[in-house]
Amino acid sequence: MPGPPPAIRKDGEPGWAAGLRKLYNSVVDEPLPDSFDDILKKLDESDEG
Amino acid sequence: MKADRDTAENKADEAFRKELLGTLPHLRAFARGLSGRPDYADDLAQEAAIKAWTARERYTPGTNMRAWTFAILRNHYLSELRRNRRQTDLDEGVAERMLVMDADQEGGIHLSDMDAALQQLAPERREAVMLVGAGGFTYEEAAEIADCAVGTMKSRVARARAELNRLLDAEPDPQALAKRNATVRGRSRRAAVEATDQPTRPRRRIG
């Protein structure tokens, strides 16, 4: 397992910066919850008629 | 001719729909960062997507759909805030997210710590660092989304970063982390989540 990245990367980025992106990406990577079924359906239906 | 026009419209709608669907996960992520509440964030994302769909004729194909929908989302969020005066409930939001993210680490930082720190920032700074630091927008794009001057955006991001540096010591290795935890003493950083039973000084023995 690779070790954790250094606290300050070469480009001067603090360690939390990667954490912030990961926090964001962790939500992006989640499958859409069931509560989105309605809007997905709406978007699907809207081309009819 | 009308048929041709209809076909063209359908095609445009179809392309828009595809792009919008692809943006939904990003809308969720942005909304969650802004509001700190997963359930509310999902509502916001859906409402923003509906608004975007309704306003699709104002979108210029080939421009940045994510930026366009983010602007819709944040404007909607702000007007909701004004209307409802809905309070961000840090404890509730953090507790909920802890369930899914507790074991997740990056660079020695618990995502739950990251999240808690993010929610401690002033809203406009949180938005700024979400857009630039998490969403990967340029200062110019972020300024347009947040409807402010580029200089203002830069200063918000800088302040947010300074604050996050302060809140999160960003020491990556376990030893440093353990040391940090041992010396946490009364800082509010972990307060909402983990400062349940850690005395800042040795407890006086009873009896």
From TrEMBL, chain A:
InterPro entries: NepR
Domain Anti-sigma factor NepR residue range list: 14-47
Pfam families: NepR
Protein name: Anti-sigma factor NepR domain-containing protein
Biological source species: Novosphingobium chloroacetimidivorans
TrEMBL record, chain B:
Annotated region (Disordered), positions in chain: 181-207
KW Transcription regulation (keyword) present: yes
Signal peptide: none
Location of the RNA polymerase sigma factor 70 region 4 type domain: 114-164
InterPro entries from the UniProt entry: RNA_pol_sigma-70-like, RNA_pol_sigma-70_dom, RNA_pol_sigma70_r2, RNA_pol_sigma70_r4_t2, RNA_pol_sigma_r2, RNA_pol_sigma_r3/r4-like, WH-like_DNA-bd_sf
Single Gene Ontology MF annotation: DNA binding
Keywords: Sigma factor, Transcription, Transcription regulation
Pfam families: Sigma70_r2, Sigma70_r4_2
Domain RNA polymerase sigma-70 region: 24-86
GO biological process, one term: DNA-templated transcription initiation
Protein family membership: Belongs to the sigma-70 factor family. ECF subfamily.
Protein name from the UniProt record: RNA polymerase sigma-70 factor (ECF subfamily)
The species this protein was found in: Novosphingobium chloroacetimidivorans
